[in-house]
Structure to design on (538 residues):
């Protein structure tokens, strides 16, 4: 089947008329294309890895190229690159080894075999964990003393995509000093690479659930005794929706399969039942139906994305996104757990946590968007350490935990909060609103001329900083607001004296400008968006 028809096949698979029993041959066509296609692809390997359509871009041959490209980074590394990789030599990589695994998508094991084959042929030990959420790779690297990991996943992308993530020895997402080299190597190798037949795959099978549970208990971040006491009560209902992803089975294993646990969408379905596999409001419907009918004193529902690095919450009365939950978790760590450290959050994330931190006298590390930017405060020897690190796109981790976004950590700390405070998440959040006030975050954006993509768009957004200096006034609807603070770590973030703010941030790959705003008054959001757009075109 010609490779060029695969996007059309995927369109048919993802249509409302698709019937797995009748149309399974379409999925087989995609799989055969992914296995046999010789067509190269353009690789763009960012901090969330490279993602491509299965069968047309993401194929066994192209993954073989990327595996070679990663090995080439180690073979050609100078001292600075070895430092970023966390090993001193190629020989250390051979000794410590690679952790490889996948999420629940099509051909996950086959893609892992291709990667493993290249590493094994280079004399490198390989550990295989099968279906693994992203945080389990980080825990396995640290627990096994491995040098790195390759995770076959595109995170929350639709079912027609797969992807590959690379993590160095600290378990966190690779930075640009590594991924830029992987990208360059991959695209150069694509020009001439011919498929190489696989040898015998001799890898060591590991139990990633056991490793992660042992790691989590050892780190001491979570109070399992408090959680166990809560779950033993008859007055709690816990619902976890896995959307067919790699987190299935994890809550039961971590929590010793409590009677109060109901698990949704655990069936093996690489097409995710035809839904977008993300922790969205729409996908919370099953959790809401169960918890809205619950009569238990405590209620908690969580939904995960396919690779277990994103999570969203529902408490039987309201949906709680990471903008709110991250602030709650931070407040809990300071006031209930009495921990010392800092708060790390991305610049596009709600400032509700900033307001809490200011009143508690805690320093805030506000970073560019991207979880890799939290690394300085998450490393084992970091000083100070982040009590909580989170970003508005549903990612969180915490003190002494993995350097990756970790949805299981989100579930565990939520249960601990309920156990320690005796309050549902929404009740705890209401207490914080009463003490610190409330902010209403919103997102918007607009398209610009295609000629602006890249450096020209970055430069135009940067111009806003020249007219939004601290102390200046900006018209927001009928009001004039005074600029209290200006951040330029990722776009231009203007913080006003009433704690409202707006961020103008360029897309790095598309002719779009993204606007994030947060107001004390919900009705003010449209005026904030209009003001941000006016500043861009000024």
């Amino acid at each position: 089947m010609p490779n060029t028809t695969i996007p059309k096949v995927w369109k048919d698979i993802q249509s409302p008329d698709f019937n797995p029993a009748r149309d399974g041959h379409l999925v087989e066509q995609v799989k055969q294309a992914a296995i046999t296609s010789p067509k190269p692809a353009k690789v763009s390997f960012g901090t969330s890895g490279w993602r491509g359509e299965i069968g047309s871009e993401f194929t066994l041959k192209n993954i073989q190229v990327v595996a070679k490209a990663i090995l080439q980074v180690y073979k050609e590394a100078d001292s600075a690159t070895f430092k970023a990789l966390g090993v001193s030599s190629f020989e250390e990589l051979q000794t410590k080894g690679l952790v490889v695994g996948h999420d629940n998508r099509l051909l996950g094991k086959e893609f892992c075999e291709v990667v493993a084959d290249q590493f094994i042929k280079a004399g490198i030990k390989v550990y295989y964990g099968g279906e693994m959420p992203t945080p389990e790779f980080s825990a396995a690297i640290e627990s096994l003393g491995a040098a790195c990991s390759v995770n076959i996943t595109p995170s929350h992308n639709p079912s027609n995509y797969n992807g590959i993530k690379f993590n160095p020895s600290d378990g966190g997402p690779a930075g640009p000093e590594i991924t830029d080299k992987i990208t360059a190597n991959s695209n150069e190798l694509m020009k001439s690479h011919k498929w190489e037949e696989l040898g015998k795959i001799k890898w060591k099978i590991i139990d990633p659930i056991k490793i992660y549970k042992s790691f989590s208990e050892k780190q001491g971040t979570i109070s399992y005794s408090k959680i166990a006491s809560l779950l033993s009560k008859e007055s709690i209902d816990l619902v976890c929706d896995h959307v067919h992803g790699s987190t299935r089975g994890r809550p039961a294993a971590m929590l010793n399969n409590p009677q109060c646990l109901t698990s949704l969408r655990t069936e093996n379905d690489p097409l995710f039942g035809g839904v977008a596999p993300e922790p969205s409001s729409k996908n919370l419907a099953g959790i809401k139906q169960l918890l809205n009918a619950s009569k238990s004193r405590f209620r908690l529902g969580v939904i995960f994305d396919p690779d277990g690095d994103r999570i969203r919450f529902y408490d039987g009365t309201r949906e709680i996104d990471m903008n709110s939950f991250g602030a709650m978790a931070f407040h809990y760590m300071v006031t209930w757990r009495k921990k010392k450290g800092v708060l790390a959050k991305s610049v596009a994330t709600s400032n509700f946590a900033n307001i809490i931190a200011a009143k508690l006298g805690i320093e805030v590390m506000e970073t560019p968007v991207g979880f890799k930017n939290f690394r300085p405060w998450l490393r084992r020897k970091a000083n100070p350490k982040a009590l909580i690190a989170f970003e508005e796109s549903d990612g969180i981790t915490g003190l002494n935990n993995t350097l990756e976004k970790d949805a299981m950590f989100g579930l565990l700390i939520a249960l601990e909060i309920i156990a320690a405070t005796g309050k549902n998440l929404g009740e705890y959040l209401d207490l914080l609103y009463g003490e610190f006030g409330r902010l209403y975050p919103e997102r918007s954006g607009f398209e610009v001329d295609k000629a602006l993509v890249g450096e020209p768009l970055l430069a135009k957004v940067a111009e806003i900083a020249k007219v939004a200096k601290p102390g200046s006034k900006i018209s927001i609807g009928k009001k004039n607001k005074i600029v209290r603070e200006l951040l330029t770590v990722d776009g231009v973030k203007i913080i006003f004296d009433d704690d409202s703010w707006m961020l103008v941030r360029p897309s790095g790959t598309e002719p779009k400008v993204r606007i994030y705003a947060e107001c004390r008054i919900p009705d003010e959001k449209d005026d904030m968006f209009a003001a941000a757009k006016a500043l861009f075109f000024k």
Notes: The chain has a mean pLDDT of 96. The radius of gyration is 23 Å. Residues 447 and 512 are 4 Å apart (CA to CA).
